[in-house]
Design goal:
alpha+beta; 9 helices
Length: 284
């Protein structure tokens, strides 16, 4: 009779040790991919997105949604439901964002050279082809932020390759800026209205007045500590209310607002939606 394949105790032991330190863990099959969906959630039937970046509303005690299956619960890691996953495991991975860190994945020597010239030093971990640079602090993940460089933090997973060397430093702004995409081109509002007193040049066209308004809007978004979605919308609404009907706003001004919002974690789509909704609210 065929004997069952034993659980990879070394991988499970590593996962349990790291989970005890507060690092959410999950098993990886060959090819550094998460173990596949459980039968009840095959092909994301439970509602998870196909790219596994958003789990569905299931409560399966097994790794069926990639990064979202990562856990620090030893009872789940040891459970019979996960035994099959550990038998398939070729490695272990962790959810960086869940552990409060960000991994800059450098995939070759050129990427490492760029990092050494551009990024502040931090803890490094050798990989098969390059290095992981690990910073303290979570952020939005993104692939291919530049050639051979990925950023892995929230809604992502990274292979565990050891503790690394060096002191982990705070997540710098230069890393956050890597995932801020250039805002989509938005045509400025060109609805003309009379200037002050019914004639003359609109005061909004005075560089100092307009610059002050945009700078204040950027600051309001940047200083938001909670309710970022609402802050971005209200700020867009205020800018459009003051400057949206005279044709003063340019793509550069709008781009600055979108960049500030994306630096706080807003996606380009959310920025575009907030801008569109603000214009609709003002009847533009």
């Amino acid at each position: 009779m065929t004997q069952p394949v034993p659980v990879r105790r070394d991988h499970l032991r590593s996962a349990l040790e790291l989970a005890a330190a507060g690092v959410p863990m999950l098993p990886l099959r060959a090819g550094k991919r998460p173990v596949g969906n459980c039968p009840d959630c095959a092909d994301n039937a439970c509602g998870g997105r196909p790219n596994m970046k958003t789990p569905g509303p299931c409560s399966c005690p097994r790794p069926c949604h990639g990064w979202a299956a990562a856990t620090t619960d030893p009872a789940v890691l040891r459970s019979p439901a996960w035994a099959g996953a550990w038998r398939q495991a070729h490695a272990v991975a962790y959810h960086p964002g869940g552990a409060g860190v960000t991994v800059v994945d450098l995939d070759n020597a050129d990427a490492i050279t760029w990092a050494r010239e551009t990024l502040p030093p931090t803890r490094t971990v050798p990989t098969t082809r390059g290095e992981h640079w690990i910073y303290l602090g979570a952020m939005q993940s993104a692939n291919k932020v530049r050639p051979s460089v990925d950023v892995k933090s929230t809604m992502s997973y990274a292979r565990w390759l050891g503790p690394g060397t060096g002191t982990m430093t705070r997540l710098p702004g230069v890393v956050r800026a890597l995932v801020v995409k250039k805002p989509p081109a938005v045509r400025p509002v060109t609805v003309a209205v009379p200037g002050p007193g019914g004639g003359g040049e609109c005061r909004h066209r005075m560089p100092a007045y307009l610059e002050r308004g945009i700078a204040m809007a950027e600051q309001r978004i940047t200083e938001a500590r909670s309710g970022v979605h609402a802050t971005v919308y209200r700020t867009f609404l205020a800018v459009l209310s003051a400057h949206g009907r005279c044709g003063c706003l340019t793509d550069t001004h709008i781009g600055r607002l979108f960049t500030a919002a994306q630096a706080k974690g807003e996606s380009p789509r959310h920025c575009t939606d907030a801008w569109t909704n603000a214009r609709t609210a003002l009847g533009m």
